[in-house]
Each structure stands twice: as structure tokens, then as C-alpha cells.
Design goal:
This protein is an alpha/beta fold and 652 residues long. The protein contains 23 helices and 30 strands. Bound molecules: 5'-O-[(S)-butoxy(hydroxy)phosphoryl]adenosine. Its cofactor is Mg(2+).
């Protein structure tokens, strides 16, 4: 985070009170903070009983006897899918639309709760017929189409574990995730629509399975893109053919509250992604609670739209589990914001009269650049609440969001959370909090947050430090799949009994929290997490590369961007023109990880700046990547390196 952003924050005086009409209808009032205060885990127990159906009510609330391995509601039994589906139908809401699906080519499907329930039951029966049972892992690699949601819920319904892999990840990333989870089944599609054409998914599954160590019994393939795909006899099955004969009757059995619900891989500070593990009862409690209260959900009248893909945690908690547990009506959209034209998102808001809208600052900044005339040409008056997630939102973008998208009245909630936290942790409550542009502000009721110095003492007010969570929370990760030591090391070794989030934060004079970005070797590109180590190891895996260093550099649109400094093996240096070598390396990173990890810039250099002990000086590289003056270089072993780097930068 640059100095200037921090300056803006310090001089930020604007405050916005919730509109009177909003307050009059608000779902969450100040009494929620009262109810949570001094009530500990019991607050969550009350919320869980109120928001969810328990097949067998719990009597135990929190078991923290073996920290950091928490158990919530452990003796209760619950079925996550039943909570998202059947119970709404049984309550008389079967006709309510659950999903307004909008495909990128313009096709549309409205799916009611009754229909979605029937489809998920069929899919559950199909999974059972393929031999999938409780605890088995199912990898889902799909475009954002209704079948993706159906697949997730069907897996949950039978007590199995899904691992959704974002469709933009490469065959190699997919392989690593299938292998690590030892998945039994992969659910995919032939392809999906993106930027006006079909992108293929099934071939990546084929490639991944070719490289794989563990056996995958079957691949279920949804027909979506219509692109030609190869089907392996005895292994690959068409979803529509298999599901047709399935019964829409299926009894949802209750599973233990701590039955694993999903694994979701995310980048850490090493080259190997972490399989973040979430379980059922506590996760669903906090997903439903936050979705209802942070988004002020009136399920009878609201149309909610979260633009995230199901490949990320936001798609899990705020497209699938939170909204459906609350019986919301929502929009899901397959494609990109600017397809076929830059106003596509705003067309969708107008068409479905979206009232609650949740997106990432990157998207807002991209629309800012394109100009206010684009949203200005649509009727966005249905919007009454806006949300932001994934990265710090700069005050300029916040104000633009409020004025241009929110008509100058809709409250904005800036929600801080992580794959690991499972659900929102820090946010304004829209009918209570007076909001500040750029600050995530306050911990939610029932959540305990602190900002600590390196030594572990409370900082502030008006000071910066490291963000921690001081008490266990229901939707917390339960571990890293197959690696309990890494779980303890990564999150619980720095401050003992406090969860270390990896983010820097500032507490202002009102005790409001401002997020300042990651303090570890994790980058945040367009609200998505990437690891510098992971990209470095991908680059050095290329035969041309001798050494590489990767940094996250500030970027006006994507927050941060990947910038790589690469030393080539001498025999490759003059083999081809530099731009061809760079293009080859960029594509290679795309193949190894996925398009999202492709560096914005690759600088071919002769040497990398290192300390005497041989550590790459990333700060310095970051200064260079961000075009700042090069600071004190006295600790460099060879100052000529810097000249080399700046020279090669000037060359471009
Ligand atoms: C990291 C988590 C939570 C879903 C999307 C990202 C950053 C997230 C905010 C926010 C400032 C934010 C943090 C966090 N982050 N939300 N409102 N303000 N920073 O999930 O990939 O697990 O990344 O995203 O740095 O640690 P994720």
C-alpha cells in the first residue's frame, strides 16, 4: 500500500448516516451488538437455532479444549442442503425464485426453490449411484451455471466434501488439487462462455487426469459450451444423460455439525496452495447470519446479486450457502462484466431490478475508468445496498460507487474476511453504522478483533499493526487438508492463542479498522490471492530460467499486479528477441497456474539484488516495479545490479 493511500485515509472526514427509510426497515439494529456483548459463544448458539434447522439439536456450543482445533455445535446433526432448499419449500416458498441465471450469450433460466430442490435431489441420487458417499471428495471445475450450484449442494446433501476449482486455473493447478484432496469424482462442463466465446474446460480435466497419481473413478460432464470434447469410455459421463432417469425424491439425512463441507485451495507464502477446510454447522450459521444482517436481506422482496465466481470463497458463502440458507432470490451471471458491451452488469441490474449488489473494488475501478455514462444510461434505482469485498477500497472508488451506482443514497458495506474465516468478520451494519469511505470499520457482533504490535500488544488508537482474531468464531477454518502442522504454523504460531490473519491494519481515533494489505508474501490481484513463491517456482520451472523474483506492485485497477524479475540461463539470453522470451514466460505461468497469475510485466535482468546473506531484496524490487526512487542500497552486495535493473526497465 502506498503512502498516498494512507494519507487519504488519515484525512478522511466524510461520514454517511444510513438513510431514515433504511433504518425504519432495517434487519439488524444495535440490539445485536448488545446481544453478543459478554455472551460469548452463546450468542452464536442462539443465532444458529434461529437461522437454521437442526435435524438433531445441539447441546454443546463451542469446544475449544484442543486449540487451535475448534468444534462448534458438535453433538448436533444438520443437513446443509436441506437448510438451503427443502425447508423453504416446506415453509410454502417453493414458487419463489432462487436463481435468475443469466448466461453470457443472453440465455436466461429462472429456477424456483421447488425446482432447485428437485434438481439437487436428482443430482444427489446420481452421486450416490456413482458410489460417492459421506467424506468422499468431489472436485468441481465449472463455469458459473446453475449446475455448478446444484453440484455443490448435491455433494453437501450426501455428506461428501466438495473442492471447487476456479475455471480459470490451469490443468496443472487442477491436477495438484485433485491429487491433494484424493478426489474420487470430477464434475465439469464441456466449456462455458467468456468474453464472447466458448472456453473449454473438459480438456484441462483430461490433461490433469493424465498426470495424476490418485485414481478418479468418474468425470461428469455438463453440456454448456457445445464445444467438441473427448469422452473416455467407462470414466466420462454426460450429466444430462445420467441425471434424466434419477428420482427427485431423496431424504436429506442429518450429519454431524463438524462433518466437512468443503475444501477450498488458496495461496499461502510457500509454493504449495493450502486446502482450507470448512465444516457444516458453524460455517452455515455464520454464512447465514452475515448474509442476512450485513446485506439487510428481506427475502420476500429483495433481489440479491454477488458477482463472485463459485471458485472463490465469496462464491461459496455469498452465492451458494448464505443466500440459499436465507431463502433469498438472487442473480447469477456466467460471463464477464463487459460482454458483449461495457454496460452488461448494469443491464442485468436493470433487468432483474437488483436491490443488493456485492462486488470487488477492482471491478468498481474498472467501471470508473470506463466512465459514468455507462451505468448512467441504465435505471439503477432498484439498488438500495452496496457491498465491497476482496481488497481495500480506496476512498475515491468508494465515493464513485456510492454516487454513480448507489444514487448517492445506498449504504456501502466494506466487508473484510478471508477464505480462512469462511464468512464476513469486519463490516458496517448498514442500518446502524455511520460509514466512512475506505474503512471496513467494526467487527461484527460475536466477533473479536484486535490490532497488535509485532510484540503482541494492543496498538492505538491512531496506530497501525497486525490484524488478529482473538476468539474462535463459528465459520473459522478447521484446518489445512492433510497438514495440521502447517495450520498451526501459519495462523497460530505468531501470537499463540490469537488467529493471525496476515493483514496489516490501522485503528483510527474512533477505533474503526482500516485494512492496509498483506504483510506476508501474498499478493492481492483483483481481489484474488496469489503467492509470490508459487509464481516464482512456476517461472523457475521453465527450462530457460535461472532465477526469478516476483513482487506485487501497486496497480490502479487490480489493486496489485504481478511483476517478475527473471534471470535467464546464459544460453537462452540471445536466442530470441526479448519480447518473445517474455511472452513465452508469461504463457508458461498461465499454463502452470492460470491466466490470473500471468505477470503484468517481466523484466529480464542479469542479477537480482540480494543482501549479504543471500536474501532477495523484495522491497527494493517493489520500489522499482512501482517506479519509486531507489532507496538505501548500502546493504546490497553489488550495487551495479540496481543499475542493470533500472537500465533494463528503461529499455522497455
Ligand atoms: C484477503 C483474503 C474474502 C473474500 C475474498 C478474498 C483481503 C478481503 C477485504 C476488505 C481489505 C480485504 C485481505 C484478506 N481482503 N476483504 N474488505 N478490505 N482487504 O478472499 O482470497 O481469502 O483473501 O483479501 O488481505 O486477507 P481471500
Amino acid at each position: 500500500m502506498s503512502e498516498s493511500t494512507i494519507d487519504n485515509r488519515l484525512h478522511e472526514e466524510r461520514r454517511f448516516e444510513p438513510p431514515t427509510e433504511f433504518v425504519a426497515q432495517r434487519i439488524a439494529g444495535p440490539e445485536l451488538y448488545e446481544a453478543a456483548k459478554d455472551n460469548g459463544p452463546e450468542f452464536w448458539a442462539d443465532q444458529s437455532r434461529e437461522l437454521l434447522h437442526w435435524h438433531k439439536p445441539f447441546t454443546e456450543v463451542l469446544d475449544w479444549s484442543n486449540p487451535p482445533f475448534a468444534k462448534w455445535f458438535a453433538d448436533g446433526h444438520i443437513n446443509v442442503a436441506y437448510n438451503c432448499l427443502d425447508r423453504h419449500v416446506e415453509a410454502g416458498h417453493g414458487e419463489r425464485i432462487a436463481l435468475h441465471f443469466e448466461g453470457e450469450p443472453g440465455d436466461q433460466r429462472d429456477i424456483s426453490y421447488a425446482e432447485l430442490t428437485a434438481e439437487v435431489r436428482r443430482a444427489a441420487n446420481l452421486l450416490l449411484s456413482l458410489g460417492v458417499s459421506q467424506g468422499d471428495r468431489v472436485v468441481i471445475y465449472m463455469p458459473l451455471i446453475p449446475e455448478a450450484v446444484i453440484a455443490m449442494l448435491a455433494v453437501a446433501r450426501i455428506g461428501a466434501i466438495h473442492s471447487v476449482v476456479f475455471g480459470g486455473f490451469s490443468a496443472e493447478s487442477l491436477r495438484a488439487r485433485i491429487d491433494d484432496a484424493e478426489a474420487k469424482l470430477v464434475i465439469t462442463a464441456d466449456g462455458g462462455y467468456r468474453k464472447g466465446s466458448v472456453f473449454a474446460l473438459k480438456p484441462a480435466v483430461d490433461d490433469a487426469l493424465e498426470m495424476i497419481a490418485s485414481p478418479v473413478d468418474n468425470v461428469l460432464v455438463v453440456k454448456r459450451g457445445g464445444n467438441e470434447v473427448a469422452m473416455v469410455d467407462g470414466r466420462d459421463l454426460w450429466w444430462h444423460e445420467e441425471i434424466a432417469p434419477m428420482s427427485d425424491q431423496h431424504h436429506a439425512e442429518g450429519f454431524e455439525a463438524e462433518n466437512p463441507l468443503f475444501i477450498l485451495y488458496t495461496s499461502g507464502t510457500t509454493g504449495k496452495p493450502k486446502g482450507i477446510l470448512h465444516t457444516s454447522g458453524g460455517y452455515l450459521t455464520q454464512a447465514a447470519f452475515t448474509h442476512k444482517n450485513v446485506f439487510d436481506l428481506h427475502p420476500e422482496t429483495d433481489v440479491y446479486w454477488c458477482t463472485a465466481d463459485i471458485g472463490w470463497i465469496t462464491g461459496h458463502s455469498y452465492v451458494v450457502y448464505g443466500p440459499l440458507a436465507n431463502g433469498a432470490t438472487q442473480v447469477i451471471y456466467e460471463g464477464t462484466p463487459d460482454s458483449p458491451a461495457p454496460g452488461r452488469w448494469w443491464d442485468i441490474v436493470e433487468k432483474y431490478k437488483v436491490s443488493i449488489f456485492y462486488t470487488a473494488p477492482t471491478a468498481i475501478r474498472a467501471f470508473m475508468k470506463a466512465g459514468r455514462q455507462i451505468p448512467g444510461a441504465r435505471d439503477l434505482s432498484s439498488l438500495r445496498l452496496l457491498g465491497s469485498v476482496g481488497e481495500p477500497i480506496n476512498p475515491e472508488a468508494w465515493m464513485w460507487y456510492r454516487e454513480v451506482i448507489g444514487g448517492g443514497v445506498a449504504p456501502i458495506v466494506d466487508t473484510w474476511w478471508q477464505t480462512e474465516t469462511g464468512a464476513i468478520m469486519i463490516s458496517a451494519l448498514p442500518g446502524v453504522t455511520s460509514t466512512k469511505p475506505g474503512a471496513a470499520q467494526v467487527p461484527l457482533p460475536g466477533i473479536s478483533i484486535d490490532v497488535l504490535s509485532e510484540e503482541g500488544t494492543h496498538v492505538g488508537p491512531e496506530a497501525g499493526g497486525l490484524l488478529v482474531v482473538t476468539q474462535p468464531w463459528p465459520s473459522m477454518l478447521r484446518g489445512i487438508w492433510g497438514d495440521p502442522d502447517r495450520y498451526v504454523d501459519t495462523y497460530w504460531s505468531r501470537f499463540g492463542d490469537k488467529y493471525f490473519a496476515g493483514d496489516g491494519a490501522h485503528l483510527d481515533a474512533d477505533h474503526d479498522i482500516w485494512l492496509l494489505g498483506r504483510v506476508d508474501d501474498v499478493m492481492n490481484v483483483s481481489g484474488h490471492r496469489l503467492s509470490t513463491m508459487e509464481i516464482e517456482s512456476a517461472i523457475v520451472a521453465h527450462e530457460m530460467t535461472a532465477e526469478a523474483a516476483v513482487v506485487g506492485a501497486q496497480d490502479d485497477t487490480t489493486g496489485q499486479a504481478v511483476v517478475a524479475f527473471v534471470i535467464l540461463k546464459s544460453r537462452f539470453v540471445d536466442q530470441k528477441p526479448a519480447d518473445e522470451l517474455v511472452a513465452e514466460l508469461r504463457n508458461w505461468v498461465g499454463q502452470q497456474i492460470g491466466a490470473i497469475a500471468k505477470p503484468r510485466e517481466i523484466h529480464l535482468v542479469d542479477e537480482l539484488p540480494k543482501t549479504r546473506s543471500g536474501k532477495i531484496m523484495r522491497r527494493l524490487l517493489q520500489d522499482i516495479a512501482e517506479g519509486r526512487e531507489i532507496g538505501d542500497t548500502t546493504t546490497l552486495t553489488d550495487t551495479s545490479v540496481i543499475r542493470t535493473i533500472t537500465t533494463s526497465l528503461d529499455d522497455e
